[in-house]
Amino acid sequence: MLLYEQLASQLREQIAQGALRAGERLPSIRQLARSHGVSTATAVQACLQLEREGLAQARPRSGYFVRAATPQTPSLRPPRRRTPATVSNPMLQDVLDMLARSDLLPLHSATAAPELLPQSALTASLSHCLRHAPAAALDYAPPQGHPALHRMIAQRYAQLGVSVSPDEIIITAGAMEAISLALRTVTTPGDVVLVESPTYHGILQAIAALQLKVLEVPNVPGGGIDVARLDQRLQQNTVRAAVLVPNFNNPLGSLTDDAAKQAILASCAKHKTIVIEDDIYGELSWSGQRPSPMRRWDRHGNVITCSSFSKILSPGLRIGWLVGSEWTDALLRAKYFSTVGGASLPQLALVHYLQRHDLERHLRRLRMALADNGQRLHEAIERYWPKETRACTPRGGLSLWTQLPPDTDVGALFETALAEGIGTSPGMLFSSRGDYADCLRLSCGLPWSDKLDRALQRLGRLARDKRIHR
Ligand SMILES: Cc1ncc(COP(=O)(O)O)c(C=O)c1O
């Protein structure tokens, strides 16, 4: 057993025996190192191990805390299909109808509530740009976007040790347009695109809209993308592109580790599969440690990176971006044909905001709030939902994936909850052919409130009522 495993095992035992209780702070890294005669790196490794197991939770600047007893992790069956298929999602219209409603408690929405975002600072930046430079603010933005914003995004990558030239960045209308443009640029109808299962339904719909076929590879709650199966799928099929969310997959919140990311890149390069990396949740690690985007290890210029400010600053500004690698010119043409350029005002306002505010400080607060919400959701599920319910322990992002007892009619639960003003996202949305019929995704972006507590209580009652008794 390695040193860190020994230390993790001792801490695990103390938690199991109640010597360290839920909500209590673990000894600090320095105390652990000193009292166990190990290096601080070893103590950090041990805490990270407990975090991976869902036993401890890091709170930025405060250390590690013992998590409350957590529900068991969902036991997801790998997708049955190993061959490419078209996307068919009978629930899409339900989602569109739900998104049009403003009266719901938005447990369906993978966004942070307005209270968690810097609304007044962004409003001030928008007003400033309109007041001081109305002509520029109300004009077309250049097709590639405003250069000052490219530079800021490139600087942020540089802080992560990822070299990105401002010239290869294209501003898009959110990450969704970035993904669509990337797919449109590198594929032709009938091509096969690999995705994780489960994955964000917008990715599946973008693939369907371009008449592409989809091939799914499992993403497992505790471990991320299944690299061995990915390699197998690439060997057995000609796959033009892979759209992957290695940092905090939506809906699982799982993290694919650095070694797996490098193995995936090697496998994709070997099989000439272009990687479209969706890093939209990369900044939302609940432990505070920002994982690297895959392009950090891209030696073959084989990765197009897509991301946006939707999850960290404002979904409504609709500002995302592409890092285009060798496809930058073709992507820029696609962007031009799609919308000519983006809206100037949000881009200029964002530059103004980023110049004047400490983004890192905001992110620290946001990550902490999301981790707390996730913990509270777990506790409510433990308290109110059927005891066989399982729930993921997300490593980051905005979603909590739950698995209800197998005889629950999740479709009926969704409908009834919706009629009562509670939005949820049924699991079936997150695969190409309606797998995960027993799962439900909840948002971690809502601050705790009595209303939310009552809604979770109600969902628990509905989950009991909606059991199909055969
Ligand atoms: C994985 C993933 N990619 C892309 C998007 C779309 O992002 P945007 O709002 O920036 O278009 C979402 C939104 O939920 C998402 O979860």
Automatic annotation (TrEMBL):
Residues 1-69 form the HTH gntR-type domain. Pfam families: Aminotran_1_2 (PF00155), GntR (PF00392). The keyword S-adenosyl-L-methionine does not apply. Keywords: Aminotransferase, DNA-binding, Pyridoxal phosphate, Transcription, Transcription regulation, Transferase. One of its GO terms (molecular function) is transaminase activity. SUPFAM superfamilies: PLP-dependent transferases, Winged helix' DNA-binding domain. Coiled coil: none annotated. PROSITE patterns: HTH_GNTR (PS50949). PANTHER family: HTH-TYPE TRANSCRIPTIONAL REGULATORY PROTEIN GABR, TRANSCRIPTIONAL REGULATORY PROTEIN. This is PLP-dependent aminotransferase family protein. It comes from Dyella caseinilytica.
